[in-house]
Design a protein that fits this description.
Blueprint (H helix, E strand, L loop, with lengths): L2 H7 L4 E5 L6 H12 L7 E7 L2 H9 L1 E3 L8 H7 E4 L2 E4 L1 H4 L2 E5 L15 E4 L8 H13 L9 E2 L6
Parallel strand pairs: 1-2, 1-7, 2-6, 7-8
Antiparallel strand pairs: 3-5, 4-5
The structure holds S-adenosylmethionine.
Length: about 160
């Protein structure tokens, strides 16, 4: 079952973590996918974390160039973005559904973010050696509220 179906099936409000979020494309895409599936904005909240303060600054800005928009249809672009000087600014209605924090996954401060219904971690483990990957996987697994929901890893995040 994919995330949209899982969220729609749930009667409770849903929390989603993107670790790492980089410049925000992934968490914002999740928010748009849920909105497009008819999920009410009050039913979910998304947190993106990343070790890099610069990418988090850009994620909060949510201004993208054409290259970042290639997977989005013209309908989605016109519905959720304002275009000016060849830059695409995400609407406040989507930005408000996602918050961001600068956090190192391995840092003690991670505990403060709490636990989540769904955890996404794509394209971070690829940078780690085997031992660090396993350590990161354990940390990400522990960020889930419920063990039934596996962490969503990317295809490249092989163990
Ligand atoms: C290639 S991006 C992936 C972003 C997004 N998940 C995606 O697939 O588009 C990898 C990100 O991992 C972040 N990162 C690397 N080590 C990290 C750590 N220990 N804690 C948090 N983020 C980390 C980097 O700063 C970078 O922004």
């Amino acid at each position: 079952m994919d995330l949209v179906e899982l969220v729609k099936k749930s009667s409770a409000d849903i929390s989603i973590l993107c670790a790492p979020s980089s410049t925000g494309e992934e968490p914002y895409s999740i928010a748009i996918a849920l909105l497009e599936a008819g999920v009410h904005p009050s039913k979910f909240k998304i947190l993106g974390i990343d070790i890099n303060a610069q990418v988090i600054f850009k994620a909060k800005e949510a201004i993208y160039i054409q290259e970042h928009m290639r997977n989005l249809s013209p309908q989605i672009i016109s519905k959720y973005f304002a275009m000016e000087h060849e830059k695409y600014t995400l609407s406040q209605s989507v930005k408000s559904l996602v918050s961001f924090e600068v956090i190192n996954l391995f840092d003690e401060s991670l505990k403060a973010i709490g636990k989540f219904d769904f955890v996404f971690s794509r394209n971070m483990l690829i940078y780690f050696d085997k031992e660090t990957k396993l350590k990161a996987k354990k940390i990400l697994d522990n960020l889930r509220k419920n063990e039934i929901n596996d962490v969503f890893f990317g295809h490249a995040d092989l163990f």
